Amino acid sequence: IFLEKPVCSTFEELDRLVSLSKASGIPMLVNMSRRYHPWYRYLKSLYAENKIGNLIRGDISYSGGWKHNGVHAVDTKEFLFPGEYCKGKIWEHWKGRHANDPTYTVRMELAKNGAPIWFHGFDEKHYQVFDCEFKFEAGRLRITNFEEEIRWEQASINSLGERILISGDLQ
What global pTM score does this model have? Predict the structure, then answer.
C-alpha cells in the first residue's frame, strides 16, 4: 500500500496500521520518493564509503508546510546522512495554505559531529522551492529546483595556496 503523508495523526494510529500491515502480509510504503532517485542513492553510497568526507553543514529550503513538504527535507537528510539530531530550535514559522500545517525554519545539529543542519521554510505564496546545499570536507553539493540541477564543486588548492571550490564530477 502506497501511503501519502501525513500517514497518521497519532502514534496509536501508526501502531494500528503497522499491526494491520504485519497481520495481512501487505507491505506499506510512505511517499518518500527521493529515497528511490538514483542520484540520492549514489550520494548516500559515496557518503557511507567516506569518499566525500564528513558532512560539515546542510541547508535545505522547502515550501508548503512542515508536514506536507518539510517532512521530505527531513527524510532526505535522514536517508543520506542517518544519525541523531540535537539542539533543535525553531527560528521562525508562519501559517501555510494547509490547515494545521505551518511552515518552519528549523536549525538542528548532528549529534555525531555537531554539524548544523538548517531546514529553511519559504512561503509558497511566492513560488514552490526544494533546494539542498550540502558542504562536505571534500566539496559542496547543490541540488536545486526539485533536482532540475545537480552540481558538485570539489575543494582544490589554487596557485596562492588557498582552498577553493571548482566545478567537477562527483565520483
Answer: 0.84
